[in-house]
């Protein structure tokens, strides 16, 4: 909004200068008028672009917050929440308590991975920029998909069903490596899974 206001102010200044110039030098001809019209149109279009860009940023921020809210809403009704698995993954990653999954955890793991699949789909379709979600979601993503227990229970036996995750992992990993950022659980990176190259295409 502030940038758009600046553009509007500049537009007024330009038009005022043009009017004064025409009055002083009496250079009122078609060429000069056309030039002023073009300048005004360009500045006006730039102002509209700034407004739309700002609105897009606000919409994207709201969308990202809704994705985050969806994660913490997963589960309930007698089952553990995806957020509970996140805590277990965090304890495993930090060395507090080794993660050992059983059949009782499978529903929770699937819920978590369904959310990851949704996020992966947005990345793969370029509907959302990684730069916009990296700070908020990179830990949730990598600490899960690079975990050997998660891989053993779901990602390896049903890897074709999770193809989107493999593809998003490749894209996101390249982004973090390019920017010198940590790859969580890199020792058991998803890229070590057999068939990764084909699945991540």
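-> sequence recovered:
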């Amino acid at each position: 909004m502030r940038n758009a206001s600046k553009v509007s102010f500049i537009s007024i200044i330009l038009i005022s200068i043009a009017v004064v110039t025409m009055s002083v030098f009496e250079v009122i001809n078609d060429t000069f008028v056309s030039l002023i019209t073009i300048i005004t149109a360009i500045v006006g279009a730039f102002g509209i672009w700034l407004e739309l860009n700002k609105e897009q940023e606000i919409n994207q921020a709201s969308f990202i917050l809704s994705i985050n809210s969806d994660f913490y809403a997963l589960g309930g009704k007698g089952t553990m929440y995806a957020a509970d698995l996140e805590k277990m993954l965090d304890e495993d990653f930090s060395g507090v308590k080794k993660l050992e999954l059983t059949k009782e955890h499978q529903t929770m793991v699937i819920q978590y991975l369904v959310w990851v699949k949704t996020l992966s789909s947005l990345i793969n379709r370029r509907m959302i920029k990684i730069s916009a979600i990296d700070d908020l979601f990179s830990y949730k993503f990598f600490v899960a998909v690079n975990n050997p227990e998660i891989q053993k229970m779901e990602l390896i036996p049903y890897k074709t069903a999770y193809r989107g995750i493999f593809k998003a992992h490749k894209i996101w990993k390249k982004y973090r490596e390019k920017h010198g950022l940590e790859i969580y659980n890199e020792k058991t990176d998803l890229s070590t899974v057999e068939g990764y190259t084909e699945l991540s295409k």
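DSSP finds eight helices and no strands in the chain.
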